[in-house]
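TL;DR need structure tokens for one chain.
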Amino acid sequence: MQVPVVDINGKQINTIDLPADIFEVEVNTGLMHQAYVRQMANARLGTHKVKRRGEVNRTTAKWYRQKGTGRARHGARSATQFVGGGRPKGPTPHKYTKDMPRKMRQQAIRCALTVLLRDNQLVFVDTLSLDTPKTKAMRQILDAVVGKESTALVLVSDRNENVERSVHNLADAHVIRANYLNMRDLLQYDKVVVPLDALEIIKTLWGQKEQ
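>> reply
TL;DR here they are.
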């Protein structure tokens, strides 16, 4: 499939062919959902904790006499219905991690890229670079490339401090390296800006001939 390539001013300067084994696969929404759920679950720390009745530090002396008060018979202030008592059935630390085979994860990324290309959410740029970190300059580039109303995910092929620092200052944009491509970031933004050098990394990592 041929797609246009634009410059940083948003003008088309060329066209390129995209590999069908990455950008024209059969879309499996169930697989994409599984990969997304796995990523979000693995990001959870699982450090939540509350004290239960046996863990609170309260007196074990009988609260008041057994009979004659007209109240229920309580033997400890650590009961769950009292302020300062233990919490019933509260959370304890545990892992939320989920497993997913590597080939399934890779296929989920291909499905996401196919969907984004089909919906015209991928924007291919010949090159993306700045001489110095400049938020205003990056704002102008993104406005020209993806439009003023769109949020953007910017890919870079390698460490690029000028571009990364410039994008980080924008509330509606995010930058990641192409080898860290993931389901959450791909599905979170309106447009994905792909420089040609980042596209080469995508071809290397997610091309099915490399399996």
